[in-house]
Automatic annotation (TrEMBL):
Similarity comment text for this entry: Belongs to the trans-sulfuration enzymes family.
N6-(pyridoxal phosphate)lysine sites (modified residues): 183
Pfam families: Cys_Met_Meta_PP
Record's GO cellular component terms: cytoplasm
Keyword Transferase annotated: no
Protein name, as recorded: Cystathionine gamma-lyase
Keywords of the record: Lyase, Pyridoxal phosphate
Source organism of this protein record: Actinocrispum wychmicini
Entry-linked InterPro entries: Cys/Met-Metab_PyrdxlP-dep_enz, PyrdxlP-dep_Trfase, PyrdxlP-dep_Trfase_major, PyrdxlP-dep_Trfase_small
GO biological-process terms attached to the record: cysteine biosynthetic process via cystathionine; transsulfuration
Length: 356
């Protein structure tokens, strides 16, 4: 699919050559045991539905993709390949830090996404998340990769918020992309899935092996749903980013709102770097309301915004992150603009926000 635009690649990625009587998007293959003689033997080690989605995502990310049962299954498989010291974001997805602490004999050094970075001597892996979740800070992948590579460390980027259309970390110098496809990639709040894409085919093979041995395999139906969702990612991101831009403009001067962040706005401190390294923006904003009660009142008053964790879906959602243990102020809201009509969404949010 080289030479085609994002929309075309999303629609056609991973689809089989057309054959009479076969569907455009192959149906999910549910088998656990396969007739021997070909490459697929058993449902824990391989599956044609995984291969189709891996082909589509791998082409977009620009590397070799391995799908996993969830974003955390992907991240934990990657972290299990590490030894010694690793660097993790102090402000990124908190379960990543919690997983290492609870399960792995690794020394962890943490650093905020916007830096400063620690020395990378003796570090085996540097994991960054940019834009970070939920703070939406951004770090310079190319500069970081140069520094980490000079010290002999691998660089992995959690690309969940950006999606493969928003950012291509492998092109920017990273070695590995990890992502939760539960969010915008699948995009309909009906599936949990993740993937890793590697520049190095040998590392991808090692991760496939880890998936087979560890058994954290994605269900064929979930994989198929994610592939179907990927088909409209380009369209959905366009509307979500339009909605985020309109909300940013409407909320900027709002008396009850502080700390409004959206890296896609020239007024955001992350914009100069984000606009350089990202290919396009998305629908995720962060802001603060004065209290827990103000957030509850807002969510109760809105007709269109659903209180839900997760983000990137078709429907607008908002999540007060402190309730999950994120080290952020009580009233911090991660807002995920969905695909509703822009005028409807802005009017609904403005009407629902507390006036004083
Ligand atoms: C949601 C999320 C994850 C975890 O993914 P799951 O699919 O929920 O396991 C990891 N990283 C980031 C940035 C996320 O937003």
């Amino acid at each position: 699919m080289t030479g085609f635009g994002d929309g075309t690649r999303c629609v056609h990625g991973g689809t089989a050559q057309p054959r009479p009587d076969s569907p455009f998007l192959a149906s999910p293959v549910f088998g656990s045991a396969f007739h021997l003689g070909g490459s697929v033997t058993y449902g824990r080690s391989d599956n044609p539905t995984w291969r189709a989605l891996e082909s589509a995502i791998g082409a977009l990310d620009g590397g070799e993709c391995v799908v996993f049962a969830s974003g955390m299954a992907a991240i934990s498989a990657l972290l299990r390949t590490c030894a010694g010291t690793i660097v993790l974001p102090s402000d990124g997805y908190f379960l990543t830090r919690q997983y290492v602490q609870a399960e792995l004999p690794l020394k962890v050094v943490t650093a905020p996404t916007s830096g400063p970075w620690p020395a990378f001597d003796g570090v085996s892996l540097v994991l960054v998340e940019t834009p970070s979740n939920p703070g939406l800070d951004v770090c310079d992948i190319t500069a970081l990769a140069a520094e980490a590579h000079a010290a002999g460390a691998l660089v992995a980027v959690d690309n969940t918020t950006a999606t493969p259309l928003g950012q291509r970390p492998l092109e920017l110098g990273a070695d590995v992309v990890v992502a939760s496809d539960t969010k915008a990639l699948a995009g309909h709040s009906d599936v949990v899935l993740g993937h890793i894409t590697c520049r190095d085919a040998a590392l991808a093979e090692r991760l496939r092996q880890s998936r087979t041995l560890g058994g954290s395999v994605p269900g064929p139906f979930e994989t198929w749903l994610a592939h179907r969702g990927l088909g409209t990612l380009d369209l959905r991101l366009t509307r979500q980013a339009e909605n985020a831009a309109a909300l940013y403009a409407a909320l900027r001067e709002h008396p009850m709102i502080t700390g409004l962040r959206w890296p896609g706005s020239p007024s955001d401190p992350a914009y100069p770097l984000a606009s350089r390294q990202m290919r396009r923006f998305n629908g995720v904003l962060t802001f603060q309301l004065p209290s827990v009660a103000a957030v509850s009142d807002f969510l109760a008053a809105s007709q269109l915004v659903t209180a839900a964790t997760s983000f990137g879906g078709l429907h607008s959602t908002a999540d007060r992150r402190a309730q999950w243990g994120d080290p952020v102020p009580d009233g911090l809201v991660r807002f995920s603009a969905g695909c509703e009509d822009t005028a409807d969404l802005v009017a609904d949010v403005l009407a629902a926000l507390p006036k004083e």
